[in-house]
């Protein structure tokens, strides 16, 4: 932070009318040197004020006077010399330094609601709602009064969808935890659905208030953009951008990756979390994390088995050990390593996983040739073969190998193509029952529910 900020100041922070953020003197000066502060920051405040459109103003709602950057009266260019001062109301406004923290919190919250970004954000939400005929009674900044007429809240935007009342709160600035919790509790207690909307979906830049909402909301975050408004109008369904942190399960370990997609309001799930907070989410991160935690305990046995299999040599002692490890985890593993179809299936799946032939000698168009082999001799492997191609990102590799498109023809041919056969549950394309649990265990990257 800059050492040019005055130590004593009447105004600890100002309101940025563009973003709705409260900005301290240190944040405004940042790391700027003396010349930059004088030539750029200080001068811009003056010019904006003269133009009648000051960006930084007093945060008190009864004031909102534009702020300028003044200097302590010293002869030399010493540190700690600049401070915020009203352009016009310095002697009339009492400032915020003497106010209680709860009052300051309310001032910051209301200041954020008046920013240009906040107003524009609410406009996009309203346009999205009005494009979706399943919503009605849309309103901005209207009171939501609880049943007994006592307490009330004023959501940024609210609407009805059937019998369900929905509140949209736009989170663009820092908010104290107790303010967030009070709003969550109010809508939960009054049988409302609460959807928080964010400025952006870059989790690495989230402030504490945004983290408080994001993690309490099953690690899902939403925002409305010009693109999603256009999608809402084109489809007649309220579209939003959704991002979440998904635990990605791999035999090597588990890591979280951000996923971002456009979703529709009618695809969301609503419930109350273990923490008592109402939630709106698209992807169930809680369930995914629970599964990842279960899989994590099995990874040492999975990794040991994979190392053994890829070594491509028989070791009776080690085979007995890795087999015993999988049996304890509920997998079906034959007594002998080279049992058919156990060996053949694992060679197929490890070939796909590692991008090279394991146990097969196809060299010219290896993955297309492997697909032809399965269609001719191992139809029951084709479903998991394609699950593995998707899971291990081998789709383009298979396409490159399929030079003449013959494999794709076998897959997509109407009625008789193997995709159609798999879809209608042709038993010829079912994986042997005794292999399903083994595949699910050894290849946690594959969606377990689709292994059959």
What does this structure look like?
This protein is α+β, with helices and mostly antiparallel strands. It folds into 3 domains: about 15-105, no CATH class; about 115-295, 3-Layer(aba) Sandwich (Trna Endonuclease, Chain: A, domain 1); about 300-450, no CATH class. Helices cover about 40% and strands about 20% of the residues. The protein is built from 17 helices and 16 strands. It has helices spanning about 25-30, 35-50, 100-115, 115-130, 175-190, 210-215, 225-235, 285-295, 300-310, 315-330, 340-355, 365-375, 380-390, 395-400, 405-410, 420-425, 435-440; strands at about 15, 20-25, 55, 65-70, 80-85, 135-140, 145, 150-155, 155-160, 165-170, 190-200, 220-225, 240-250, 255-265, 270, 280. Strands 6-9-10-11 form a 4-stranded mixed sheet, with helices on both faces. A 3-stranded antiparallel sheet has the order 2-1-3. A hairpin with a 6-residue loop joins strand 7 and strand 8 (about 150-155). Helix 4 (about 115-130) packs parallel to helix 7 (about 225-235), helix 9 packs antiparallel against helix 10 and helix 12 packs across helix 14. The longest helix has 17 residues, at about 35-50. The radius of gyration is 30 Å and the shape is elongated. The two termini are about 60 Å apart. The relative contact order is 0.06. The mean pLDDT is about 90.
């Amino acid at each position: 932070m800059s050492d040019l900020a005055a130590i004593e100041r009447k105004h600890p922070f100002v309101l940025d009318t563009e973003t709705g953020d409260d900005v301290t003197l240190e944040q405004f000066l940042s790391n700027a040197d003396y010349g930059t502060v004088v030539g750029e920051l200080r001068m811009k405040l003056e010019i904006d004020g003269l133009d009648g459109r000051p960006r930084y103003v007093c945060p008190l709602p009864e004031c909102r006077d534009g702020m300028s950057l003044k200097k302590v009266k010293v002869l030399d260019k010493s540190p700690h010399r600049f401070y915020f001062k009203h352009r016009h109301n310095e002697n009339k406004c009492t400032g915020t330094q003497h106010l209680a923290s709860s009052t300051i919190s309310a001032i910051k919250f209301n200041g954020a609601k008046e920013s240009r970004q906040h107003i524009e954000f609410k406009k996009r939400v309203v346009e999205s709602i009005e494009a979706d005929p399943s919503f009605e009674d849309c309103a901005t900044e209207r009171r939501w009064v609880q049943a007994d007429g006592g307490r009330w809240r004023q959501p940024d935007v609210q609407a009805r969808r059937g019998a369900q009342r929905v509140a949209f709160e736009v989170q663009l600035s820092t908010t104290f935890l107790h303010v967030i919790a009070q709003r969550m509790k109010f809508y939960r207690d009054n049988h409302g659905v609460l959807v928080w909307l964010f400025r952006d979906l870059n989790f690495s830049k989230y402030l504490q208030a945004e983290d408080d909402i994001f993690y309490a909301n099953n690690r899902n975050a939403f925002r409305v953009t010009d693109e999603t408004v256009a999608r809402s109008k084109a489809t007649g369904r309220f579209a939003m951008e959704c991002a979440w942190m998904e635990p990605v399960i791999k035999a090597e370990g588990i890591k979280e990756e951000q996923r971002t997609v456009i979703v529709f309001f009618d695809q969301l799930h609503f419930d109350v979390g273990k923490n008592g907070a109402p939630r709106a989410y698209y992807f169930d991160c809680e369930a995914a994390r629970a599964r990842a935690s279960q899989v994590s305990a099995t990874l040492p046995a999975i990794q040991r088995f994979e190392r053994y299999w890829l070594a491509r040599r028989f070791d009776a002692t080690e085979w007995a050990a890795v087999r015993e490890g999988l049996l304890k985890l509920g997998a079906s593993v034959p007594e002998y390593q080279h049992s058919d179809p156990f060996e053949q299936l694992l060679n197929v799946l490890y070939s796909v996983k590692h991008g090279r032939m394991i146990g097969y000698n196809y060299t010219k168009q290896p993955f297309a040739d492997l697909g032809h082999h399965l269609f001719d001799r191992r139809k029951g492997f084709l479903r998991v073969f394609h699950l593995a191609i998707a899971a291990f990102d081998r789709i383009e590799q298979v396409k490159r190998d399929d030079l003449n498109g013959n494999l794709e023809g076998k897959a997509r041919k109407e009625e008789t193509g193997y995709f159609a056969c798999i879809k209608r549950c042709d038993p010829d394309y079912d994986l042997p029952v005794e292999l399903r649990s083994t595949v699910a265990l050894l290849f946690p990257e594959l969606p377990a529910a689709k292994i059959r």
